[in-house]
Amino acid sequence: MAKHDPWRIIVMILALVAFIIMLGFNAVAGAGSSGGPFLQNTGNVSAKYETDITPSGWTFSIWGVIYSWQTLWFVYVFSGFCRRNTDGWMYCEPAILPYGFYITWIINNIFNIIWLFLWDREYMVAGVIILALIAFTNYIVLLFSYHGLNTYFAWLNKYYKVDLWLIRILVQNGVAVYTTWTTIATLLNFAVVLTYNGGVARETAGTVVLSILLVEVILWFVAENFFLDKYVRYTLTIYPVVIVALCGNMTKNFNAESPSRNGIFIAVLLGISCLIFAVRVLLVVWRHLKHDVHQVSDSIPMSPKEISEKKKGIFV
């Protein structure tokens, strides 16, 4: 008879509770002061600290996409409570998303709430540090998901291909959207700190941040295509997020009649991002048709129980 894993259930439920609480705080912060814990809404704070690379307001609607996508992967992982395979319940046999995934997610949500209060009180330096930690913990969450999927790939590919693709689409691409946006948000907040706390000219601060973003985009393109393809091949949501952010910048900060230095930089960076995304999609399609991510064998893969016996610590 299939057995449940009480500790994993507890960690998963805590991750969901943390997510729900975080959503609640974000909703209250967006509404602003009305006797609640926040003194002003997040949009008003952004308006006080304009920079040369602050995107149009519509850009921030991406948060709705982010949180909707996270909700979808929660629905998927909790469906494992209702599904079984020959080894046990799908949420724990196999434990594709290990304890570390959920624990890091909880920490990430706590950082998210802390940032809301720091932003509300206009503690910009502390805020950018916490926002960087949000992005960093998102990278760790992705690392756990890639490691888990790689570990159980052979078994999933042979017996549960639908789950293989659901993890890629819902979990990995969903978290990647969140990760990319919080990385960009960290850069935007860094521009605020440079301008309003560091006394750096707005244009210079914008150029510095855009330069960092350009380096990050190029480094990621190299890493995903030449070093990490085995893990990240089907994560395709990173460039669309960058493109949305840059489009938001174009609509607000680009003057076609008299373009500024940063306006030109934004336009060039947008063009580069679109080109890289197109190349990436073509490469993924070509590799999918011609080169398997893993060398798939016709032999029977190890069962989840056999694999889990070799795993240790936070990767369990």
UniProtKB/TrEMBL annotation:
It comes from the Eukaryota. Keywords: Membrane, Transmembrane, Transmembrane helix. The chain crosses the membrane at residues 7-29, 58-78, 99-118, 124-144, 165-192, 204-222, 234-251, 263-286. The keyword Transmembrane applies. The keyword Transmembrane applies. This is Uncharacterized protein. It comes from Acipenser oxyrinchus oxyrinchus.
